[in-house]
Amino acid sequence: MFPINETMGQYSELFMLLAAGTYTVAFIAFAWDLAKSSKALRAIDLKAAAAASATATAKVPVGAGVGAGGSVERADADADVDRAASDVSGPAGRAERPSSATGRASKGAGSGAGQTADGDMRYAAERRVPARVAVALTVLGAVIHAAGVVTRALGAGRVPWGNMYEFLTTGAFVAVAVFLLVLIRRDLRFLGTFVIGLAIIMLVAASVAYWTPVGHLVPALQSYWLIIHVSIAVMSSALFTLTFAMSALQLVQAHRQKAIAAGGQDKLGFMRLVPSALSLENLSYRINAIAFVGWTFTLMFGAIWAEKAWGRFWGWDTKEVWTFVIWVVYAGYLHARATRGWTGTRAAWLSIVGYLCVIFNFTIVNQFFNGLHSYSGL
Amino acid sequence: MSERVNDKKKPAPQKTPDNATATPVANAKAEAALPALGIKGMLRWAWTQLTSMRTALFLLLLLAVAAVPGSLFPQRPANPSIVTQYIKDHPEYGKILDSLQLYDVYSSAWFSAIYILLFISLIGCVVPRAIAHYKAMRSQPPRTPARLSRLPEYGTLVIPADAGIPASRAITDAAAKLKKRGYRVDVRGDDGARPSLGAERGFLKEVGNLVFHTSLIGVLVSVAAGGLFGYSGQRILVEGDTFVNTLVGYDQFTPGTNFQSSQLQPYSIQLDKFQITFDRESKGKFGQPIDFKADVTTRETPDAAPEKQVLKVNDPVSLGGTSIYLTGNGYAPVVTIRDGAGNVAMQGPVVAKLQGDNYYSSVVIKVPDARPDQLGFAGFFLPTAFVTEEGVSFSGDPELINPQLTLNSYFGDLGLDAGSPQNVFELDVKKLTPLNARNLDAGGITLAPGSTYTLPNGKGSISFDGVKRYIGVDIHHNPGQLYALIFALLAVAGLVTSLYVNRRRVWVRTGTHPDGRTMVEYGLLARGEDHRLAAEAETIRGLLTDEWGLDSQKAPSGTVDNGPADTVHAGSAPNEASTEPRNEDFIQSTAGSAESKKDQ
Ligand code: HEM
Questions:
Q1: A331 Cβ inside 6 Å of ligand 1
Q2: Contact, B308 vs B297, CB < 8 A?
Q3: Is the CB of B495 under 6 A from ligand 1?
Q4: Which residues 284-343 of chain A have a CB within 8 Å of chain B?
């Protein structure tokens, strides 16, 4: 057992505060990006509408300088067609659906001016200065945050996830890190306000409500299973955080698309920056699938650890109950994606409900429910 | 799935009119049988419903909801006494909840009904799927579609005439390449003018899905088997004590439904020493235990050689098919009690039950062998005794810095002779006469190690000889858990396979252009979720261009490409193809051969 180093612990707290401050600036930059881009896109839209008033919108040559207005609508039209097809034909029909159709639709649009996040969520050529600033700040915040997590680990002489304070600070770091990692391959910057906002909330909650000085672990937590089980749980939760944000946006976007398709006013201009509901659904499905595998491991390793620590691998302890509930809800989500009439909006709701269960399991269950897991260091 | 079931039952209703025309008797019989058919039909309908994907989804969500109350209300299997207390505390609805089985959620009729239905649905789902998949795996890839350009991924290649690769050779080349890439390939009409091939791969996806779902059944059965054939029990061991794995060796024993006492292997385990490390570093948690370590000596069988082992939290000892877990600990003051006659009526450690911080523990001593009167003691043990100004004593530290035993004493009939079991941690003083208590003249008893107190009225004496530690161990035998683990691992393997293997079909068709060029078109189709289909199309294209030594004819798949510009510039037909790609037969529009029309 390593000795405790309280000075390190104090450094860690300082880093956490600095990280939270940096994230706050990044958050503002992300919000600025949303506002600015939506304004720019709107201007382009108006121009495009004027220019293309003679031609049918669907025939507007996407990516030929006309820009986002045309391509977004094009993607929307695709989405509608796809959705209609899958509604009619169910799983079999879905299986035959051209899976890369949306990707292709927007490929041509890749170079379009003003196009931000395309259906494939690849980066477009256009530069968004506020978004770049925001990402740079997020990277800086994550580096400071990492220093906070590492010094915490050094201060406590063990992995930094042994109590609520540490779950929150380390969990927020993993969420941001996963977000940044995904950003390398996909332009999910439209999720920035969401993810960074959540990270700030977690850091503040940790420092205000759950602050705990560095300390040793109770014997029940001294096991390599703590390292395995909790780290996988935290990583899966980080992925669920992303898909939660995407599913929430998907609902808003689907609503907006429907309103626009019905000839209504576009009241949610800032959603221009966000890809079509179908693209959101497809990507969040893929992330959810990874996270579900992770959660399956969380559940299994938890059971193995429970067997080691308490002599039974499953006892319907409150924490176990909620871990199971989360698993079943996401299994339901995966089923929904293959069930006629349950794709799209309903699946998104399941993804959201699943995430609410994750939050509930972490906050309420840890604090207010008695069980064998009640040693979260409060 | 539902369609398939519907198909099978068609013949059944037709029987009725046949019978009806035969004889009046048969007619009557048929009438009588009608309701039966109705029931049969209804059962079939119910089965179709039950095994539908929608029902599976519904039952899954219902299962999630049904599991929740078990975390809201106290559960009997976890702690029966809390349930009893809860019912007492909530007289308005405590009983009602009980009648709804809300204190036994996970063995309740409604919870069981949901998961049993779910698993029946699962079986009804997996079996037909497995059969269908077995057939699919043994049949050839589906026939080449007339228009490959309609497939989600589509592309074309042109082999120049001077390369000397005819259409038939091109198709065998493509077949070889695809085979190497793991496709199952079937070549059609390679002696004709328009040879084609169908290829398929990724059968493992469906296999993974089936393995996953079947393994879930395996997990459920293993858990059930564990409940039938397993057992568990508890025992407290003071340093020096030995536990022998027989029914009488347990303080508490919970057998599984099918338990037989012959299952118990009579191994033994002796607690030699128990050590605790307390936190002396951090301010917030000063004095909290951070390490428990029990040195034990075990024997597999009564006459086996003894073996030294270490028992720790998170690190059980395995013995005789059971696992032994360290689940509790505390202090056991050692006392000697002499009765009124001067004889030693009791001598040994007394297990003190934890009550508060720093091992503040309660002590109950019953001395049924004392004469002329039985003696009883009740009080507290404090490892580091402190007394506040108000006279309240507490323990200042978990370590034995200033151990103290404070007791009241009683004499009379302990009521043990009646034979009814008593809680060893409680002393019923109703029928006893107090000897020592703070409010009596004699006062309470306060003992430090090594000291002796003589009871009033010549009732005897009590000596506090020293302090030992004790541990609580749980002993479990669960024959199902290994199988549960195996099935769980299988399930994960199946899950990952099912999610990440992609089932794809590829078709290639070739033809010869009148000018001698060989035209190749290919199309890809995914079954199920597959976001990498475009990448696969690109890879296959790359394989084929390498094979035929074509310049890397870079073209995004899905758009028609007539090869590098230098091969195309000659004719006007390719230009046509590029303007209206999706609705034309590529080879036909460029090659325009008579045979190709016959194909369609
Ligand atoms: C204990 C209950 C069940 C659980 C936990 C469960 C879980 C899952 C999961 C996690 C998946 C996605 C991974 C994969 O494709 O392998 C899945 C897929 C699937 N399940 Fe289940 N399932 C259950 C019961 C059922 C039942 C009763 C049916 C049949 C009615 C069923 C039919 C399917 C089908 C057809 C798929 C493939 C969907 C696709 O093509 O994406 N499952 N299941």
A1: yes
A2: yes
A3: yes
A4: 285-286, 289, 292-293, 296-297, 300, 303-305, 307-318, 321-322, 324-325, 328-329, 331-332, 335-342
B213 alpha carbon to ligand 1 midpoint, in Å? 7
In chain B, whose CA is at the least distance from the CA of A211? B284
Contact A315 B496 (CB under 8 A): no
Q: Are B94 and B87 in contact (CB under 8 A)?
A: yes
- Report how far ligand 1's centroid is from the alpha carbon of B312 (Å): 40
Distance separating alpha carbons of residues B359 and B394, to the nearest angstrom: 10
Rg of chain A's alpha carbons, rounded to an integer?
23
- Residues A153 and A231: their CA atoms lie apart, in Å, by 14
Residue-wise DSSP of A205-253: HHHHHS-----PPPGGG-SHHIIIIIHHHHHHHHHHHHHHHHHHHHHHH
| Alpha carbons B176 and A31: distance in angstroms, whole number | 54
Set of chain B residues whose Cβ sits within 8 Å of the Cβ of A109:
none
Strands B307-311 and B503-512: unpaired
Question: What are the tens digits of pLDDT across the range B397-436?
Answer: 889 999 999 999 999 888 877 767 778 888 888 888 999 8
Nearest CA in chain A to B489: A300
pLDDT digits (tens, 9 = 90+) for B488-504: 999 999 999 999 999 99
Contact (CB<8Å) B54/A322 = no
Q: Say if residues B523 and B145 touch (Cβ distance below 8 Å).
A: yes
User: Quick check: CB of B367 below 6 Å from ligand 1?
Assistant: no
Reported as a single tens digit per residue, the pLDDT across B287-320 is 888 889 999 999 998 888 999 999 998 899 999 8
Q: Is the CB of B121 under 6 A from ligand 1?
A: yes
Nearest CA of chain A to the CA of B57: how many Å? Answer: 6
Chain B residues whose CB is inside 8 A of the A104 CB are 534, 556, 558
Strand, coil or helix: what is A122?
Answer: coil
**C-alpha–C-alpha distance, residues A79 and B377, integer Å:** 80
CA dihedral B543, B547, B548, B552 (to 10 degrees): 40
pLDDT for residue B44 is more than 90: no
Residues in a beta bridge with B292: B276
Which residue in B77, B316, B492 is closest to A308 by CB distance?
A: B316
Ramachandran angles phi, psi of B364, nearest 5°:
-130, 125
Task: Give the residue from A159, A156, A168 showing the smallest Cα distance to A223.
Answer: A159
Confidence of residue B215 (pLDDT cuts 50, 70, 90): very high
What lies within 8 Å, CB to CB, of B388 at 6+ separation is: B394
Residue type, A152: R
- DSSP for B308-350? EEEEBTTBPEEETTEEEEEEEEEEEEEEEEEETTS-EEEEEE-
Tell me which amino acid residue B217 is: I
Measured distance CA(B41)–CA(B341) in Å, rounded: 87
CA triple B378-B381-B383, angle to 5 deg: 175
**ipTM exceeds 0.90, yes or no:** no
Whether B444 contacts B379, CB under 8 Å: yes
Ligand 1 atom 19: the closest Cα is on which residue?
Answer: A335
Cβ pairs bridging A and B (under 8 Å): 168
The answer to whether A353 touches A329, Cβ cutoff 8 Å, is yes
Q: Within chain B, how many helices (H) and strands (E) appear?
A: 16, 24
Among B52, B53, B63, B209, name the best residue to mutate to test ligand 1's pocket (greatest count of ligand atoms within 8 A of Cβ).
Answer: B209
Residue B483 half-sphere exposure, CB side, CA atoms within 13 Å?
16
> What digits encode the pLDDT tens for the residues A12-28?
999 999 999 999 999 99
Q: Is A25 part of the contact surface with chain B (CB cutoff 8 Å)?
A: no
Nearest to B476 among A220, A311, A314 (CB): A311
